[in-house]
Amino acid sequence: MQRSLAAVLVADVAGYSELMGDDAEATLNALKRLRSEIFRPAVASRHGRVVKSMGDGWIVLFSAAADAATCALQIQDLLATDPTHDDPKMRLRLGLHVGDVIEDEEDVFGDGVNVAARLEEFARPGTIAISDAVFGSLDGTLRPSFDDAGERMLKNISKPVRVWTGGQAPEASFVVPASVDRPHVVILPVQTSDPRTDVIELADAMTGDVLTYLGATHWLSVTSGAVRGQAYTLNSRLRASGSRLRLEVRLVGPTGTELWAAKIDGDMDDAFDWQDTSTETLVSHVLAAVFDAERRVLDKLTLEEMNANQCELRGQLALDRLDPNAFDEALAYSSAAIEKDPQSPEALALALVSYLSAAVMGYHAVTEPYARSVPKWCAAAMPLAPDHTHLHLVLGVTAYAEARDPVTLRKIIEKALRQASSDYLTLTLSGWAYVWIGDHGAGAECLSKAWTLGRQSPWALAIKGGLAFALLQTGDDAAAIAHAREGLETSADYATLHRILAAAHAHLGDMSAASEALAAALAADPQDSIRVIRARNLFADHDHDNRYLDGLRLAGMPE
Fold first, then answer.
1. The domain over range 404-559 is classified in CATH as 1.25.40.10
2. What is the C-alpha separation between 258 and 267, in angstroms, rounded?
């Protein structure tokens, strides 16, 4: 027998007997797809281990509660949004607890399993129930996903358990509506003919990682499994010989043309690191190929020929840079999309966030032509925002820019994170918003997760800048410097990063490096001063505990 402390996830298909009675063959096929295309990849991606399978249910062990909760949220989100899993609709109840686990050759039991099983019974179909022990282990990006259901007496559990519930929010979630013409990418499960368990689990983990990272990309629609309609298709096979690994990857466009193919070699002795690096390589090349293909198509169309969805997508693709031209393009295309469809929440969100970002960065020549449109955009967005997480968040930040009400903005951030805790764009804007209201630790958590999910996205530079800024404000000057330097390798003209370097070096006492960075910042924006920076930023309290401004003063920034 083996005894350990673990995070235990218990999963069960809701109404399985009834589904089998209605159509046994279709139910078994749907269960097989659920297991191979969603459940196993999500579990493996978070380093979980299935220790017991009960046909229509599973017991999974994780070493970290955050991994278990993230896995549970991803499973429920994929089941709720993937159109290939609706015949019949599979809905899971998930329970999660941290406790003692005892394993023998045939079974698993212990307090962790017992409580998790009772929490699974407590959960509604399509949701998750977790114990207070799990909730206390989650960071600020995951906690808003769960509501306090109070202390509950669970069957055969002697003491009351404080329960938190979450999963798919009934009122809204960050899902691009079917009417929005997003490029569609189908991820086929990574195949392997190797019979070894560790190779099979590695293939599942890579499938889960690709789904996670591509699924967090705002401008794509990503599904797993069967190809339906016009779509990009990612087909991968993992081969193994002894300890040697080879991942063969092929991306095919909607017309059947091969857009990218590669062979990525590795070794089982370094499987975890190889999984991370090869997945990053794969995702990077897939996004680049799809990005280029979509941009080539849209660049052939005039503004008049584009529909609202195409205009909005073209504006999204412009934001791979953070210079005035990028924001000018984003505003031009998003405003054109609004003219073509005044009720497009995606276009309104893009227009408002582009305007706000350009204003904070001091690009007044870009924002001035659109200043009169902002109140109209806000008025059009208000009735649409309750059903669109990202628009609700953008509208909240826009209102905060005028009212500077941090309490209201915090509530809006937490609601957005509850509904879209794995959307890199929501995480990015939430991270910046947390920094503006002075919660720098929460901002760093959001932006760190945003970087993991969105480092290959058009907003990568904004994420890197936000993370460097948040770390500077928390006092981690060395990390802020490292992130700022990485960002400047992408764009040497991003003045914000030069200012962060100046402030961080000044706090560390390296005045030579601080002066050099300040000179670069002033070369990019000669009119900068403490007063100008304060005026255009959205700090709730400009000078209290603001290491950014204090560092710039130390570096010699004019007042």
1. yes
2. 27
